[in-house]
Amino acid sequence: MMKKTRSFKIKNKLIAIILSITFFTLAIAFTSIIIYEKITIQEAFKNKYETIALVVAEGLGPIISFGDQEEAYKALILYLTSDQSIQNAFVYDENDALYTDYHRNRDIESKQPEKPKKLKLLELPKIPEIPEMSTMIVESDYIHIFHKILEDGSKVGTLYLRVSIEEINNKVKNLIVSMILILLLLIPLSLVLAAKLQGIISNPILDLAHVTKEVSAKGNYSIRVEKKNNDEVGMLYDGFNDMMEQIHNRDIQRDRVESELKAAEFFLSSVMESMPTSLITIESDGTVTQWNKSTVQLTGIEAIDAKGKNLWELLPDFTKYQSTINKVLHTEKTVQFYKESIKIKQKTFYLNVTIFPLLVSKVPKFVIMVDNVTEIEIKEQQLRQSQKMETVGTLAGGLAHDFNNVLGGIIGTISLFKYKSSKNRKVSPNEIEKYFTTIEESANRASDMVQHLLSLTRKQDLSLAPTDLNTVIKSTVKICKNTFDKSIEINARYSKKRAISNVDSTQIEQSVLNLCINAAHAMTIMRKEGERYGGNLNISLEKVDADKYFCKLHHEAEEEENYWRISVQDTGIGMSAATLTNIFDPFFTTKIEGKGTGLGLAMVYNIVQRHKGFTDVYSQEGIGTTFHIYLPLLKDDVIETIMSPQEKVHKGEGLILVIDDEEIMRRTAKSILEECGYDIIMAENGEEGVEMYKKYKDKIKAVVLDMVMPKMSGKQTYIELTKINREIKVVLASGFRKDTRVESILKLGVKGFIQKPYTMAILANTIYKIIASKD
Predict the structure, then answer these.
(1) CB distance 326 to 355 below 8 Å
(2) What does the alpha-carbon distance between residue 730 and residue 752 come to, in Å, rounded to a whole number?
(3) Neighbours of 718 (CB within 10 A)
(4) Cα–Cα distance measured from residue 659 to residue 74, given in angstroms and rounded to the nearest whole number
(5) Are 602 and 585 in contact (CB under 8 A)?
(6) Quick one: 627 and 690 in the same domain?
(7) Gyration radius from the chain CA atoms
(8) CATH assignment at residue 689
(9) pLDDT tens digits for 138-190?
(10) Residue 385, pLDDT score
């Protein structure tokens, strides 16, 4: 065997060695991947069902407290039917007696409409000791999860889930099969690679043989072999090149000049083609004369198809730069545009566009230089969203505090009213009005907090509107007082007049919050051990006139422009001059690991710039830091009224169908619309709503449709309703903001949208408007 192997060609030996090493390495790597993925899948599986157990237990707590066994069973069906791995579930009461149970093969696969009263499918397990909230027992085929059910902090029962791990086994099997397939696919690739590598050794010898034959046949003494290695072959190359050099010496000068001329020509022709930036050269009428490879990659249009054509016809979105071309022609100055949103073949790109004249040309020509910054812009948007979520996490405690205060106003008022009623004490109309006013104000505050939280977390472009910055500062101060350490004394000074600026209030509030959070950290967690914890946080708002002296100190300011200045001052650790030069750079942070991403100040700087404002900072180590945000005053005299007048409630008549899975919302809508003169029929899900519409379609004038429902979503329900009547008038109701999910349904033809919680005026007037509309 060894003798036969020695007789193999060198390239075959190399191929055999490379294949053996490759196969062995891949086998070890894939085995490690499979083991790691199996462990990862198992941990994810456990975490998933621990979370499900927690959610189900929290949902069952109030139900068990009320003693509604049938409702507990329905809750199990609602929570568990969508997950095929959960085979059984048992709910025990506080005395560990079986309260209700769920079995997939009984309740789902047998498709029985109601739970049989007596059906023992599985021997009841004994509840183990649960040291904390839950415990998990893992067996070869099942995972057993036991979770306490609490209500108001007291145990009212125990939830037991029996989960099949067949899904884990299937995933591991599929992973093993995938690894084997990949291994089989890589073998041909390894063969190709081995063939390429063996050529590194054999090809130089063949190259030298080919060159020698060419010199002998054609007498071409200008040929040289490129020395790639310093081995024996390299020495042979040196000797061959030296010999050829002596022969070629008489022609070296001529060849050198010729080579330089060709290199220069190649360089000039390649500069434009090889640049990563898209370059388009056009004449004044838009005719394309140059179109490099980067432009081909960006647009998908080949250079041969673009040259001689009109740019405005090739790329219609570039038409908006026609006027700029004329401006550049007269001024001969470069014009730049940043992060322009441009569509090319139905795909949106973010582009930096620079237009400058080609002065060396006799005929007026212009170069359009385009840099594709789409990925950078998308990442910046993601970074801004990440910083928003970091802010939300910091403010969670304050929001919880506010919600409890709001609920206290509602629950306390209702309990007082019920107490007086139970004692048959007379409640005057003034008292009733006072109680309802308190409840309404508290509910509106809760609604505003939810909207604020949704606004803070959503991805969005600027939504400018005249805004009183006093309101923004007051909201920020309130959250800070409920969130920050009590060692921080917060002082606020507001403008005596309305401080109106055309801003996106959510983004400005987020910016101020970020500055306040940084200030709080500088006075607490960033202090050295032994230093005084806490300090003063001063937030102020005042008007600033941008005269010539102010503009000299602040180059970003525009003369004759007035600004509102928001100042955030702390008595924290301060910053050095070196630190100040980097604070607005993304990911730069002086906080300890885990306490900051380094995105907050970068985001503040970006947001203020987009509002045509600017930012200043002053700091001294050991003294503190002051940030100033400058925002332009609103120039228009007309300012939106912040408190809108009470709306008139329009009444009507006709039959209205309300489809909502929440009984409270159905009853509320029914009461409001009946008060406005309408007749109401209701459905608790999409399927029932579609059937009811089929029955009364000739009488129903409008439909109030919830967006999120079980069985059939609001979108699916609307599609089914339009199959019955394409002219149906539907008002979509949802607790979500008017985001992409809502917009996707509105584009289908829904006539209106109202956000929960809604008032009587909003619902009644929306229904009246769509019924009266002719569309």
Answers:
(1) no
(2) 7
(3) 26
(4) 20
(5) yes
(6) no
(7) 37
(8) 3.40.50.2300
(9) 877 888 888 888 888 788 888 888 888 887 788 778 878 887 888 777 777 77
(10) 58
For the stretch 85-127, pLDDT in tens is 888 888 888 888 888 888 888 777 554 444 444 434 456 667 7
482 pLDDT tier (thresholds 50, 70, 90): confident
Pick from 575, 597, 632: which residue ends a domain?
A: 632
Residue 532 within a domain:
yes
Backbone angles phi and psi of 62, in degrees to 5: -65, -35
Nearest to 310 by CA among 294, 336, 288: 288
Indicate if 343 and 481 belong to the same structural domain: no
Q: Could you tell me the sign of the dihedral formed by the alpha carbons of 129, 135, 139, 143, in that order?
A: positive
Structural domain span for residue 562 = 461-632
Cα separation, 734 vs 756, whole angstroms: 5
Backbone angles phi, psi at 430, to 5 degrees: -65, -40
The encoded tokens of residue 729 equal 């008038």
Domain for residue 180, yes or no?
no
Whether residues 669 and 585 fall in one domain: no
Q: Is 197:224 a contact under the CB 8 Å cutoff?
A: no
Last residue of a domain, which of 598, 617, 632?
A: 632
Please indicate, yes or no, whether residues 535 and 612 belong to a single structural domain of this protein: yes
Helix axes 69-80, 10-66, angle to 10 degrees: 160
Round to the nearest angstrom and report the end-to-end CA distance of the chain.
89
Domain identity same for 577 and 682: no
Q: Are residues 26 and 110 in the same domain?
A: yes
Angstrom distance (rounded) from CA 633 to CA 116: 70
| DSSP run (H or E) holding 513 | helix 505-523
What value does the mean pLDDT take over residues 497-517?
85
Spatial CA neighbour of 150 closest among 57, 80, 49: 57
Among the residues of 81-224, which ranges form H helices? 104-107, 166-218
Task: Determine what percent of the chain falls in helix, strand and coil, rounding each to the nearest 5.
Answer: 50, 20, 30
Among 720, 616, 722, 712, CA closest to 660: 712
Q: Are residues 544 and 665 in the same domain?
A: no
Residue pair 471/417 in contact by the 8 Å Cβ criterion: no
287-296, 369-378, 576-585, 740-749: the lowest-pLDDT one: 576-585
Give the C-alpha distances (Å, rounded to integers) separating 429 from 84, 183, 208, 433, 440: 56, 82, 110, 6, 16
Are 595 and 732 contained in the same domain? no
Q: Write out pLDDT tens, residues 398-437.
A: 555 456 555 555 665 666 566 566 656 666 777 667 666 7
Distance CA 30, CA 317 (A): 49
Residues 500 and 631: their CA atoms lie apart, in Å, by: 10
Q: Residue 761 is encoded by which pair of tokens?
A: 């005026």
Residues 6+ positions from 713 with CB-CB distance below 8 Å: 686, 707
Q: Which residue, 292, 313, 315, is CA-closest to 304? A: 292
Per-residue three-class SS string for 397-450: HHHHHHHHHHHHHHHHHHHHHHHHHHCCCCCCHHHHHHHHHHHHHHHHHHHHHH
Domain-located, residue 237: no
Quick one: angle between helices 374-422 and 505-523, nearest 10? Answer: 90
Count of the separate structural domains present in the chain:
4
Cα dist from 629 to 506, 511, 554, 608, whole Å: 15, 9, 12, 7
Q: Is residue 664 part of a domain?
A: yes
550: domain CATH number? 3.30.565.10
**Residue 675's closest CA among 754, 760, 759?**
760
Q: Identify the pLDDT of residue 412.
A: 55
Q: How far apart are CA 97 and CA 86, in angstroms?
A: 21
User: 97 by DSSP, 3-state: which?
Assistant: coil
Dihedral (C-alpha) 700, 702, 706, 710: value to the nearest 10 degrees? 30
